[in-house]
Amino acid sequence: MGDLTGWKHAATDAPDVITRLQELRQRVPFELREIIILGMGGSALAAYVLKTLFSNEPQQCVGVAKRPEKAPVEPSQRSKGELGEPPDAAACAPLAEPENGSCPDMKIRVVDTTDPAYVKRVLDEMDTAGLLLIVASKSGTTLEPNVLYRAFQQRLTEGLGSAALAARHCVAVTDPGTTLEALAREEDWLAVVSTPVDIGGRYSALTAFGLASLVLAGADVGPLIKCAQEAEARAWEREREREQTQTQTRAEDADLADFLTSSAEAGRDVLLLVLAPRFVAVGRWLEQLIAESLGKDGRGLIPIVTTPERAEKLLLFSPRAQAVVSVALIGEEACDDAAALTRLRETARTLGVPAFDYPFCEPADLGALFVDWEFAVAACGERLGVNPFDQPDVAASKEATSRILQERGPERQHEDLPVHSLTELAAIAGGPDAHYLALLAWMPYSKVNDELLQRQARELERQHGLPVAICYGPRYLHSTGQGYKGGPPTGLFLFTGDNEEGADVLVPSYGFTLAQLCAAERQGDIEALCAKGRLVFIT
């Protein structure tokens, strides 16, 4: 585990990263009006959360927090990256890509889907002359951003008149020595931003993966970094104290890591993440961190982003939920309806359901949240005996997707797989081994689809008494998908949607379209889940 712990110093090193990104911003050879990030999982989710929360905040010139005089370790002792040449308030849980997450006069979009309808809309709406395209992949080999790059490169080339001009609108964010870096240098992209090799993707929020788009847009990330550095110092102090005392934490002093660990050890393998409406996008980052770090070897926690109302109803009316969930309440201080979170807390206390309050007031607090939850989740993984830095089951869906595309084609059906129909759901959901249901939506990001999925989730919870996770495919393959396949075998998986709009995008240099890729990813995950003995339902 020791070679992937660079994230413990990411806040300390962030000012250097920001300085290099500011230098890159000065070298952009055109009037920058839009930034689009192509990435999946840890390479995109922190950027998605940051741009969503900072979109409505007053922006100023970037002010960087000063490096603390006493860093936990000397910078020379670790590797560093270098810079080279949604829906209504009642639903309270937007899942889709916001239409305009941006700084003043700057649109920022994160494209972490291969859904052809959504990608086509972004392609049609993008400002070619003022666009900076960030291709983000830690490994450099992630299929989705590489495929998406070719579609966006073609549109840029058509709009600007030449591939050479299009290349000067592109930036790679990746580890040193990857094939993505080689491609960027071969095609003479504007820049390659190298990222630390000792920081895994889902722990990279305070590296260029999370910060690049905001800094390049001119946002003030100084308060964010200051909060992160303060949290990092506190985390190191806690670790030193525990090493010195070697004592168990008292119940009244229990911290986040203790809460997560005790929940998992007690068989409460579903963690309800309840957030204030304006911060609900934070749940997208949290669920990946938790599911990919802890959901493996048949153990861990399954995070579900939900609303105070849904969570309270589950606890009140479902004995099953009362027995298998714990609750993390995040951002009560910023919630317009704080009474709803207060009721939920009291309901949990009355029913004996463990609950943890995490304070979160404003976007700058994201810096502390990133650090606090990374330290807590990593500590929980170590206590549970799982490696919090690998994701062994993510590859299963990727391999199945490649096999389908290369050998059989994405039109392959699932008749030969042990999938179930909706008519069987009620009987199976009523069994003692079912703890949650995942609604896996293979459809475009949109507010309309958000609202549809929220209604479906509420109805499923009402009918079956199980908490329901809402996940867009293929995003979840690089997020909660690890926990679904590698974590506790207590989930039911309901697939819905299938590129019903009939849209498609041709992908230059590849032998398939986005619709074919998306269909193969969907089918590949069905096969991977079935291979792990998971219960799959098809609408």
**Rg from C-alpha positions?**
22 Å
Question: Helicity range of the residues?
Answer: 40-55%
Strand order within the widest sheet?
A: 2-3-1-4-5-6
Assembly state (oligomeric): single chain
Structure description:
- Helix content is 44%, strand content 14%.
- The longest helix is centred in the middle third of the chain and has 24 residues, at 222-245.
- The strands form 3 sheets. A 6-stranded mixed beta sheet has the order 2-3-1-4-5-6, sandwiched between helices.
- The model is unreliable at 57-102 (pLDDT under 50).
- The protein is globular, with a radius of gyration of 22 Å.
- The chain is built from 19 helices and 15 strands.
- Helix 13 (338-351) links the parallel strand 9 and strand 10.
- It is an alpha/beta fold.
Q: Nutshell version of this structure?
A:
The chain is of the alpha/beta class.
List keywords for this structure.
44% helix, alpha/beta, 539 residues, single chain
Write the layout of secondary structure elements.
Blueprint: H1 10-27, E1 34-38, H2 45-54, E2 101-103, E3 106-111, H3 116-125, E4 131-136, H4 143-160, H5 163-167, E5 170-174, H6 179-186, E6 191-194, H7 208-217, H8 222-245, H9 256-265, E7 270-275, H10 282-294, E8 302-306, H11 308-317, H12 319-324, E9 325-330, H13 338-351, E10 355-358, H14 366-384, H15 394-408, E11 420-421, H16 425-429, E12 436-441, H17 447-464, E13 468-472, H18 481-486, E14 491-496, H19 514-531, E15 535-538
Parallel strand pairs: 1-3, 1-4, 4-5, 5-6, 7-8, 7-9, 9-10, 11-15, 12-13, 12-14, 14-15
Antiparallel strand pairs: 2-3
Helix pairs in contact: 1-7, 1-8, 2-7, 2-10, 8-14, 9-14, 10-14, 11-13, 15-19
